[in-house]
Write a structure and sequence with these properties.
367 residues; alpha/beta; Udp-n-acetylmuramoylalanyl-d-glutamate--2,6- Diaminopimelate Ligase, Chain: A, domain 1; Alpha-Beta Plaits; 3 domains; six-stranded mixed sheet; 27% helix; globular
Length: 367
């Protein structure tokens, strides 16, 4: 069965919708064509020249990188930087490059969920829930068609609220209309005023499913002109956002927790603020650079905040209220290679998918 880059991209964007990426990010297909046939896939955290050579050696013509090879727009390709040299090589060798970055961080089945499973956390939610991720649809349907339309909306992904699915609010009323000479009314006659008993159906849905929801509505609704309204609502989805908060199965003292963290995440070293003598139970974490989350972690009454790239003065922000832990940028994100390979192996069983064997962490440690 032929698989195109477009097919891989569609599955990745089901896992981590493009709409969830941060505004500064550069994600999606960076180099190549959506219509290229995929032979083999290489997954990497960073796309360096060494990783690109690995893709040539393994005959992979699609590279999926977590970090963008190009963060900012460029006006020329001269090969002056490693990023430009990688792009030039990709174009010469007909290799596509796809980036999945902050949208994977925000997705509930993405970066933080994977780490949560490693640390065996429970009762999780996002540390910074992303705004604008929920919309509401209201539509008016002839009573005899209400089940059909409602089920079509559910099947398209509407009506999911936290641990509940197929949620809707419905009430009956009367709709009125009169079609002109060009109309094709499903009920009544053109040129005649008509009143029809209808059900008002209200459902919420994730913003990135907008086109799917509208398609399901238009296909299932019997009217020539489908009556509907779509609203942006302020409700927060606690499972879409940056970072995560969760609870350990059993509380630990600070020293034992750091040992546990080191072993579970296979860390070489850990930087941390002073011990404050509190038991560790409630965990807050942001993979990658997350110093902006210290105050929020304290506000959430977390016992520890795990992230990376903290500056010297950031550790003073502990104020003896929280243990601040820096595990390293690369170390906090390295499991994304395994996450993406596992996901794609299930979706495309006949396409070889490799995790890059190149250790791309630019930070080295001298012991």
């Amino acid at each position: 069965m032929e698989v195109l880059v477009r097919d891989i991209a569609e599955e990745l964007e089901n896992l981590a919708p493009r709409e969830y990426a941060e505004s500064y990010d550069n994600i999606g297909l960076i180099v190549g064509s959506y219509f290229q046939k995929v032979k083999k896939i290489l997954i990497t955290l960073d796309l360096t020249e060494e990783v690109f050579s690995e893709s040539i050696h393994k005959n992979c013509n699609l590279i999926i990188s977590f970090h963008p090879v190009l963060f900012k727009s460029i006006k020329s390709l001269t090969g002056n930087t490693f990023s430009e040299r990688v792009v030039i090589s990709a174009l010469k060798n007909d290799i596509s490059i796809y980036v999945i970055h902050t949208n994977l961080d925000v997705s509930w089945e993405g970066t933080h969920s994977y780490i949560s499973k490693l640390l065996q956390l429970n009762r999780e939610k996002s540390l910074f829930p992303k705004k604008g991720t929920i919309k509401k649809l209201t539509t008016y349907v002839p009573i005899s068609y209400s089940d059909k339309v409602r089920n079509a909306l559910f099947n398209a992904g509407a009506g999911k609220i936290s641990n509940y699915s197929r949620c809707s609010y419905n009430f009956d009323g009367f709709g009125s209309f009169m079609g002109n000479e060009k109309s094709k009314p499903f009920f009544g006659k053109k040129g005649h005023f008509h009143i029809e008993k209808e059900t008002c159906i209200n459902v919420v849905f994730s913003s990135h499913k907008l086109n799917l929801i509208k398609e399901a509505l238009f296909k299932s609704h019997p009217y020539e002109e489908v009556p509907y309204e779509i609203y942006n609502i302020e409700n927060i989805n606690p499972y879409i956002g940056i970072g995560i908060i969760g609870f350990l199965i059993e509380e630990m003292n600070e020293y034992d927790f750091l040992l546990y963290l080191r072993n579970r995440m296979n860390l070489l070293c850990i930087r941390h603020s002073i011990f404050i003598g509190k038991k560790i139970k409630k965990i807050a974490m942001i993979a990658g650079s997350g110093s902006f989350g210290i105050e929020k972690a304290i506000q959430e009454k977390a016992h520890v905040f795990i992230s990376s790239d903290f500056k010297y003065h950031d550790f003073f922000k502990s104020e003896k209220k929280i243990l601040i832990v820096d595990i390293g940028h690369y170390e906090s994100e390295k499991f994304n290679k395994n996450l993406l390979k596992f996901f794609l192996d299930k979706k495309f069983t006949h396409i070889p998918v490799y995790e890059s064997e190149i250790h791309t962490n630019p930070v080295k440690y001298f012991y």
